[in-house]
Amino acid sequence: MSSSSGAHTKLTRRQLIQGTLGGATGLVVWRWPWRVAHAAAQPSGQLTVGVHVTLSPTWFDPAETPGIITPFMFLYALHDALVKPMPGNTLTPSLAESWSENPNGLTYEFLLRSGLTFHNGDAVTTEDVKFSFLRYKGTSAREFKERVRDVEIVDARRVRFHLHEPWPDFMTFYGTPATGAGWIVPKKYVEKVGDDGFKQQPIGAGPYKFVSQEAGIKAVCEAYDKYWRKVPAVKRLVFTGVPEETTRVAMLKRQEADITFGLGGALAEDVRRDTTLKLEPVHPPAVWFIYFAEQWDPKSPWHDQRVRLAANYAIDKQAINDAETLGLSKLTGSTIPREFDYALPIEPYAYDPVKAKQLLKEAGYPNGFDAGDLTPNPPFYSYAEGAANFLAAVGIKAKVRTVERATFFTSWREKKLQNLILGASGAPGNTPVRLDAFVTKGGSYAYGSYPDIDELLTKQAKERDRGKREALLHEIQRLMHAKAMYLPLFEPAFLCASGARVAYSGLGKVPQFAYAGPYEDIQLKT
Amino acid sequence: MHRYILTRLFYAFISLMLLSVTIFCMVRITGDPVVLMADPGAKEEDLQALRKELGLDRTYIEQYIIFISKLARGDFGKSFMYRVPVLELYLQRLPASVELAGAAMAISIVLGIPLGIFSAVRVNTWLDSFSNVFANLGLAMPSFWLGIMLMLIFAVNLQWLPVQGSGTYKHIIMPAVALGLVFSAANMRLARSAMLEVLGGEYIKLARIKGLPERLVILKHAFKNAIIPVLTFACINFALIMNGAVVVESIFAWPGIGRLLYEGISSRDFPVVQTTVLLGGVMIIMVNLVVDLLYAYIDPRIRYGQ
Questions:
Q1: Does the distance separating the beta carbons of B156 and A253 come in below 8 Å?
Q2: In a mutagenesis test of the B interface, which of A247, A253, A260, A377 is the best target, namely the one with the most B β-carbons within 10 Å?
Q3: Per the database record, which ranges form the Solute-binding protein family domain (chain A) (predicted)?
Q4: Do A406 and B36 touch (CB under 8 A)?
């Protein structure tokens, strides 16, 4: 017994060394992965974004999101949505763990993730979801008010949106950058500080918390280590508004900025030649096109489909692409971006000036005609100059008329721009949303419409069967192409670049988002 | 003296009232800010709601009365774009502008005035030719071009200075040089011509005949009289740089008033444009008043109210 006992208690020197080494190894093995993971999880470093526009505090508040993508540059950092586009999926559940549509298409239910918190530590609740939706007054707010009957808080994690009638595009409006209605703000905090106070010191549930801002100049954010998806790799995120393009490229070269957007062809070429920098073109959902504003006027040459076709054949779109965006834009035969839901990819009419002249001859214009003004979307005047030169080569004489940006949009909306309009739309959404503004009868930017297309548009709006709806929308796009309703140029490359310190920029990774993201995935070189 | 100042202040008030009417009307001629602020697909009702929120649904006369009555209470309104009181924005940007204008003015005076004086004293020598070349170059080079060149050389290639921003002495060098060189060329031309005019005066000849040392003739008798127009010009330049360094501030992302004005104009932010222009006007009027008062100190022959 004693011997047995002695055998258990006696410790040889070898056993002692083995035990010590084993214990130390075990401790290291046990602690090491945690330490590595912990170290990796700690955000570090600073990423400076040279923003191509002046920063506006209204962009810090999802409730005032206009129909442009720029505010989402900040929303993706500071806030989070129930559902939003993420790499590989346009409708990715984010604050919502899941969402479902009931069979009659009248109710959408969202289930919140558990344990979500805002940057001030308050829990993200279904009450916040309802509040954020009701205070929303940005783009399409009127549409939401007309179509959503009620927002019902089912329980602490479940919220239901009841519609008056089925709205197949509800998730496009609520879950993509088509609007900012699905981005959640803290009710208690907003009520406490007010709308303007919120814009000065926003609090959200996004991967970065707001630190400070110099109005119009700079916004500083810091990694939020309780972000549900992951802890951001970069600790500090600084947005600096530098509208001057040359300065932004100089900042990139000098490592004063790590990422920048919106470069023109010449400076983008400079970036491409610099081996320390990386030119990263992004393709937002936009299309450049020429619109024949007079096609519904029987007295106008543009009323004749052959003339519109001639214009389509007359322009060497690839040449303009090469000159303006280093050939990085994508030629297209449609005004609907390929990336959009229900888009029908259509090849453009080939550059064929001989055919263009032939079509003009058949239409009764063997010597061409005076096409009046070609008014471009400012400041893209050189696009119009190129297009006008190609048109002139086949006899269509258009004069480039430049106007200031606000005048351009006001005049277009009020249908005061005449002859030819060189425009673009980069508004997020899907095919029906784009058609609604540019093709539908009474659309904001439509000078007229075609009865066959209008009929199909009305049908698709009520169609809940996805396959049938897609067929209808494809037919509309085919008709637009056949009628040469527009002269599509290309889906432009938005020329962005990252600097020498950036390991992963995330530029162009999120669908329908023109910038770098998701921010929590961005990495700096160590 | 007091009467003179009061009269000048009265005229200043009239000038500012006229300026307020002019700027109020001019910004409204540029168009409707709501079109820029609203979503491209916004309906007319949405635009109207936004106009109402900003007080732009009222008649121009009503808007002006509201604007002036608020102004009388020191309320310059709230920025359409930034959603903060404009005065707060203006005061945030003011120190940077004062800093830049001060540095640019220092460069323009230190370089321009001595060159102009030497050039006049040594007229038709190599120094005069050099000064003239310098002046022509300075006046011919657009400040935006000079700014970009400085940036490429000193920030990108040599990496001595930061590209943009503010906060340290290194940040101010390039924008101050880009602005200051233009004004130093102008100062040089003005100092030279003023000095040449004074040097041809009878009292200068008398001073020389009396046997006064040349240094004393130049510095005590000629310079003091020649400096008056140069000083006026330099002070007005200071106010102009403060409010109008739009291009240089944009290139170097300098957070000053010029950039604020540019942003205001671009986004049709009426309160921002009205405030920056009005306060710019106040500054120029005040500077002029101060310069007039300085005249008496520099040249005792000048008496006010006579």
A1: yes
A2: A247
A3: 91-444
A4: yes
In the beta sheet, which residues pair with residue A498? Answer: A259, A278
Residue of B nearest to A179 (CA): B39
Contact B41 A250 (CB under 8 A): no
The answer to whether B40 contacts A67, with C-beta atoms less than 8 Å apart, is: yes
Are A222 and A236 a contacting pair, CB within 8 Å? yes
Q: Within an 8 Å CB–CB cutoff, is residue B178 touching chain A?
A: no
Mutate to test the interface with A, among B27, B37, B39, B56 (most CBs of A within 10 A): B39
Kindly state the tokens that stand for A180: 């900012």
List b or e across A375-399, with b for residues whose CB sees 16 or more CB atoms inside 10 angstroms: bbbeebeebbebbbebbeebbbebe
Question: Which residues in chain B have their CB less than 8 angstroms from residue A405's CB?
Answer: 36
Q: Alpha-carbon distance A201 to A498, whole Å?
A: 28
- Distances from the Cα of B139 to the Cα of B107, B112, B134, B187, angstroms: 15, 12, 9, 10
Query: How far does A305 lie from chain B, in Å, by closest CA?
Result: 28
* Cα atoms found within 13 Å of the Cα of residue B268, Cβ hemisphere only: 20
Cβ distance of A217 and B163 shorter than 8 Å: no
Residue A17 to residues A11, A21, A22, A332: CA-CA distances in angstroms? 10, 6, 8, 74
**Hey, what are A125's tokens?**
């609740």
Query: Which helix (H) or strand (E) element contains residue A80?
Result: none
Q: How far is CA B276 from the centre of its chain?
A: 12
Residue range B15-62, pLDDT digits in tens: 889 999 999 999 898 888 887 777 666 777 778 888 998 899 999 999
Distance from CA of B111 to the nearest CA of A (A): 27
Contact predicate A511/A85, CB 8 Å: yes
Written as six digits, the tokens of A322 are 């090469």
Block residue for tokens 């001030």: A120
* Residues from chain B contacting residue A57 (CB–CB below 8 Å): 82-84
Q: Is A350 on the interface with B (CB under 8 A)?
A: no
| 3-state secondary structure (DSSP) of residue A374 | strand
CB contact under 8 A, B164 and A139: no
pLDDT in tens, A320-370: 999 999 999 999 999 999 989 999 999 999 999 999 999 999 999 999 999
Checking if the pLDDT of B190 tops 80, the result is yes
Residues 65-104 of B with CB under 8 A from A: 79, 81-84, 89, 92
Q: Helix, strand, coil % (nearest 5) of chain B?
A: 80, 0, 20
Look at the block and give the residue holding tokens 């320390």.
Answer: A276
B198-219 in b/e burial notation, b at 16+ Cβ within 10 A?
bbeeeebeebeeeeeeeeebbe
DSSP-assigned states of every residue in A125-162: -HHHHHHHHHH--STTHHHHHHHEEEEEE-SSSEEEEE
Task: Output the CA–CA distances (angstroms, integers) from residue A496 to A55, A85, A249, B148, in the order listed.
Answer: 18, 20, 10, 21
Beta strands in A6-56 (DSSP E): 44-51
Task: Work out the average pLDDT over B98-102.
Answer: 93
Quote the CA–CA distance of A495 and A325 in Å, as a whole number: 7
| Pairwise CB contact (< 8 Å): B83 & A256 | no
How far apart are the C-alpha atoms of B14 and B19, rounded to whole Å?
A: 9
Helices assigned H by DSSP within B73-216: 86-121, 126-140, 143-150, 169-199, 202-209, 214-216
Secondary structure (3-state) at A393:
helix
Distance set, CA A176 to CA A82, A138, A278 (Å): 10, 14, 28
Q: What is the value of ipTM here, to two decimals?
A: 0.84
The answer, for A345 touching chain B at a CB cutoff of 8 Å, is no
